[in-house]
Design a protein that fits this description.
The protein is an all-alpha fold and about 70 residues long. It is about 65% helix and about 0% strand.
C-alpha cells in the first residue's frame, strides 16, 4: 500500500541526509563500497544512540524515550 508523503516527511529526510553528509561523509574518501557501508552504519548507530538531537531538547533518542516511560 502506498502512503502519501507529507512536506514534513520530505523536509525531515532532507535534513537527515544533510546532517549525515556534514557530520560523516563530507571529508571522507572511501576505498570501497564496503568501507562506505561500514562508516555509514557506524554513524547511524551514533546518530540514533549517542548524539543529542535538537528536536529532543538535545537528548539522545534513548534518553528521550526513557522520559516517556
Amino acid at each position: 500500500m502506498l502512503r502519501s508523503v507529507s512536506f514534513a516527511d520530505t523536509s525531515n529526510s532532507k535534513r537527515l541526509w544533510r546532517t549525515i553528509y556534514e557530520e560523516c561523509l563530507e571529508e571522507c574518501v572511501f576505498e570501497s563500497i564496503d568501507a562506505f557501508k561500514e562508516e555509514l552504519t557506524r554513524y547511524m548507530l551514533y546518530y540514533n544512540e549517542m548524539r543529542g538531537h535538537q528536536s529532543l531538547n538535545n537528548k539522545t533518542p534513548q534518553e528521550f524515550r526513557k522520559e516517556l516511560e
